[in-house]
Amino acid sequence: MHQAKSAKSPLPPLLSLPAFWPLAMAESLVKEGAALYEKNIEFVGEEIKLHGGLRPRLATPNLLRLDLRSMALRDYGKPGGIPTLIDAPHAGHTAMIADYAKGQSLVQTLLDNGLAHVALTDWKTATPDMKDLEIDNYLADLVVAIDDLGGRVNLVGLCQGGWMAAMIAARFPDKVNALVLAGAPIDTDAGDGPIKRLAHETPLSTYQELVALGGGLMRGAMMLQGWKNMHPAQHYMLDQIDVYEHIDDPAWLAKEETFESWYESPIDLPGRWYLQAITQLFKENRLAKGEFVGLDRKLDLRGITCPTYLLAGASDDITTPEQVLDAAKYIATPNDKIVRKTVPGGHIGLFMGARTLKEHWPAITRWIAAQ
What we know:
Mean pLDDT: 84
InterPro entries: AB_hydrolase_fold, DUF3141, PHA/PHB_synthase
CATH class: Alpha Beta
Radius of gyration: 28 Å
Low-confidence stretches: 1-22
Strand order of the largest sheet: 1-2-4-3-5-6-11-12
CATH architecture: 3-Layer(aba) Sandwich
Protein name: Esterase
Structural class: alpha/beta
CATH superfamily: Alpha/Beta hydrolase fold, catalytic domain
Shape: globular
Pfam family, one: DUF3141
Largest sheet: 8 strands, mixed
Distance between the termini: 108 Å
Order of helices and strands: HHEEEHEHEHEHHEHHHEHHEEEHEHHH
């Protein structure tokens, strides 16, 4: 009996494998399915967070210097010398674009390269009671900010903040020591970018209808939709694919969340302000023509006589390089006091691109300090 029992040996491994395969495959599929389910849940949660679940935050410690109706004036550094005031874009997003992230902040770049005192216009979202505010109201608050800083500043205008800065320099030349216009549409008839075509080809009634839909405001959410529609494949497909592929990469997600906290948090604009800008600046180009009336004076860009730095992005499709650089044709600053610079990159990269901040803004900062 003992020998007979010993003669029975287990099935050879290769013969036992076929029976094991279905079980092993089922177990593997369960594990893969659970991992896929978990990844999908994480992806959905991240998408919800990225599209409206985050709020913009300024990266650099600052003090609230003024709390005006249209803006909060943020103070950085310490008093000393002529302050440098960054006029952030008032175009549907917050001032975070100028103080974006640690190691990627225009404010910090200015402070690190020789400017001791920097201030920032942090434009507020418009509330229903602000729907009838005009460009004059924003210019007036900008003047209040400059006066509170001592009455004379180096003025750095970014994008839509650039034409406001140019207006101030033309209207009150003694208040501006040096002027930097970065990605600023000064001559809106120059070049052939999509914004120019859109402004000229879209009837004013369309913009008026959008404001009416917003209850007298130009809603930031509507503008965000329009910006996304300029590059639909990127925003409606490729962005989601990127997030899914990097859902297990915390460093990548942290960078994405920082960007989306700014991009997906648009602010509303006063309807009257918006329609005035569309009509008088982008359709009729009144500022470049010397026909825009600001604070009860017809503004002539020849009133700008201070040193001026014009910065454009080579592939900027929001403000084409010509719209910025052509400002030199209209101002009265001596030619040897005008710098024209075109750098690689697009619109947003001019203000918060790591490469531009590292390779170009330090030299601009030193130029400001030398004036």
